[in-house]
Amino acid sequence: MKKSLLAVAAMTAFAGAAQAQSSVTVYGIVDAGYTGGNARATSGAGVTVKETVNRISNSMESGSRIGFRGNEDLGGGTSAIFTFEVGIQPAGNAGSNSTGLSADAAGAGTWSPNVRQAFVGLAKKGLGDARIGTQNTLFWEQAGSNTTGQLSQTYGSMLAPSTDGAFFTSASGGVNAGSQSAAYTARTTNTIRFATERMAGLIGKFSYTQSNLNRTQGVNAATEGTTNTSAGPTSNAVAGVAAGGQTGGNNNQSGYQFAADYVFQKANIQASYAAFTSENPYTVAAATPSATNNTAWGSGTQGNNVKDTQTLITGSYDFGILKAYAGWTNRKVESTLNSNAFLKRSAQEIGVRSFITPTIEGWASVGNGRYSSFGTGQPTANITGYQVGSNYWMSKRTNLYAIYGQNGTSSTTNGSYNLNQYSIGARHTF
Description:
It holds the Pfam family Porin_4. By secondary structure, this protein is mainly β.
């Protein structure tokens, strides 16, 4: 009897120890408040469009999200890790974290949550970790930790500009707002990532993205080269098999990223580089490059017939009473159909961030750069931006904020674009 009791006690203790070695954490950010702004676009033909927006909105300082993070100790300093994170909309509008609720032909609702991250991996103490799945890019990690605005979602930053496409809906008037155009890709799917632990002050990171589909498809000999193979087999394609005609059906997306994060005393220097490539089916009409059929890589979306290279270099120094920041970014999105057609954006920014009192934090940044919109022979415009903001920390997890930002794109033959945004809200992290 005593042996049985001892066995049960031992098994119970073992199960308790195993359970203690595995943990799941629920985390997130809820950010909501009031925001407003004005935009003015003047086209090359002299047509001016003005727009004013005011709304109760989401995520003006940080993207609202909820996530689950897990860690299981496998022994020997090795652990299994996972993260699943989705964007949320506390104010319920189509702001920066659209959830993609749509209806099918029968009117039934389809729910597609905005998955920010979904990956599984292994970590080894003393070495680093490896992850596979949908993940934030190395650029996103750098911009969040080593720029003045720390990924503020209000306009004004030149290194990590907000891309809330729902804020101004029609004020572009055909003019490209290069000042607040995306400077980098925020996250990628189909990605494997490696990162070292910090050794001698340095962290090294590398990631690789791949999603390839190659197909050869028959087409009608009379229309060979004009069928858009991305739509799948068509009647022309079926007829083309008999005629012996064929056309390429490649749909390949791949890319790699490198990053370094070096800390020396009170200084932090970070650098990231990425090169993404997309090869997609296209029609003869689409062979003329434009921003429509040549699309840059987005947040979790892969590009279309482009080579997309991105660079971000940032540095910060903690003076004690304030922290100073400086950075430079460059992006070129080049058509794979015509190397003379490209989008190019480069910018630099300086800023400071400081606690004015133990509970009041403030920051300010200013920057400028150059921007060329997509296409052959498109004009280059000067771009500018600045942002000021303040946090009132009610606790370590809850703060009130006020942010103002402004961006401008100088006048060219394509016109000019200027906008501003002001935001007041509350943010809670958990």
